Amino acid sequence: QKEVEQNSGPLSVPEGAIASLNCTYSDRGSQSFFWYRQYSGKSPELIMFIYSNGDKEDGRFTAQLNKASQYVSLLIRDSQPSDSATYLCAAKLVRGADGLTFGKGTHLIIQP
Amino acid sequence: GAVVSQHPSWVICKSGTSVKIECRSLDFQATTMFWYRQFPKQSLMLMATSNEGSKATYEQGVEKDKFLINHASLTLSTLTVTSAHPEDSSFYICSARVQDISYEQYFGPGTRLTVT
C-alpha cells in the first residue's frame, strides 16, 4: 500500500461546480496534511494545510480531515478554468523521511 | 512571505560535466531544505533532506556522491549534479521549511536540467 494515495484522474468538473479531491494515507499516526497545486511545467504551490479533524475553509477552498478513516479531501467551490491543474496531497508521516510524503496527484480539468 | 528562489531556472549541459543548482529562502531562514526530482508526468520524488551545518540525508537509491548537497547558511542550499548523464535530465525542485515546529514547505520555481 502506498503511503499517500490519490486517484490520478483526470477529474473533469464543469465550471461553477464543486470539485472534490480525495486522498488517503497509510500512517495512522500522521498529524499534518497539505494540499498543493501544480500547473504543468511549474513547481507546486501550497494551497492549504490541515492538522485537526474536521473542516478548514479558506476562500473557495475547504480541506477536510478524518483521522479515523485516514482520509483527507479538498473541495473547490465555484470551480474556475484557472483551477485546472494537478493537485498534490502531502502528509508528514510519523515513519519515514523528515520532509513531506506526496501522493502522485490528481489531474483536475474544469470545463468552461 | 515564504518565498524560495532557484537558480538557474533551466540549464543544458554536456554529458560528463557537473551542474550546480542554488536554492535560496528570500524572506525567512530555513534550517531544513529539501531537494526533489520530478520526471515528466510523474510524482515528486524526494532526493535528500538538507540541514544547515550538517550532512544531507539521502533517500534510498539516491547516490550521495553523484548529487552533492551543501547547506552552508540558513538561506542557501546547493545541489551539484556531478558527471551528469542524459538519464539525469529532469525537473529539480527545492523546498524550504519555514520553521522547525511547522511542516509547511514552500517550493522554489524549479530547475529544468537537460543533459545532452
Secondary structure elements and pairings:
The complex is a heterodimer of chains A (112) and B (116).
Chain A: E1 4-5, E2 11-14, E3 19-25, E4 32-38, E5 45-50, E6 54-58, E7 61-66, E8 71-76, E9 85-92, E10 101-102, E11 106-111
Parallel strand pairs in A: 2-11
Antiparallel strand pairs in A: 1-3, 3-8, 4-5, 4-9, 6-7, 7-8, 9-10, 9-11
Chain B: E1 4-7, E2 10-13, E3 19-25, E4 32-38, E5 45-51, E6 57-58, E7 67-73, E8 76-81, E9 90-97, E10 105-107, E11 111-115
Parallel strand pairs in B: 2-11
Antiparallel strand pairs in B: 1-3, 3-8, 4-5, 4-9, 5-6, 7-8, 9-10, 9-11
Strand content of chain B: over 45%
Instruction: Please report the distance between the alpha carbons of the first and last residues of chain A.
Output: 36 Å
**Helix count of chain A?**
0
Structural class of chain A: mainly beta
**Contiguous runs where pLDDT drops below 50 for at least 5 residues of chain B:** none
Instruction: Sum up the overall morphology of chain B in one term.
Output: globular
**Strand segment tally of chain A:** 11
The largest pleated sheet of chain A is described as:
6 strands, mixed
- pLDDT average of chain B, as an integer? 92
Strand content of chain A: over 45%
* Percentage of residues in helical conformation of chain B: under 10%
Could you give the count of β-strands of chain B?
11
Low-confidence region ranges of chain A? none
- Greatest chain-chain interface? A-B, 21 and 20 residues
Main sheet specs of chain B = 7 strands, mixed
Taking all residues together, what is the mean pLDDT of chain A?
Answer: 93
Number of helices of chain B: 0
Order of helices and strands of chain B: EEEEEEEEEEE
Derived from helix and strand composition plus strand pairing, the structural class of chain B reads mainly beta
Oligomer: heterodimer
What distance lies between the first and last C-alpha atoms of chain B, to the nearest angstrom? 37 Å
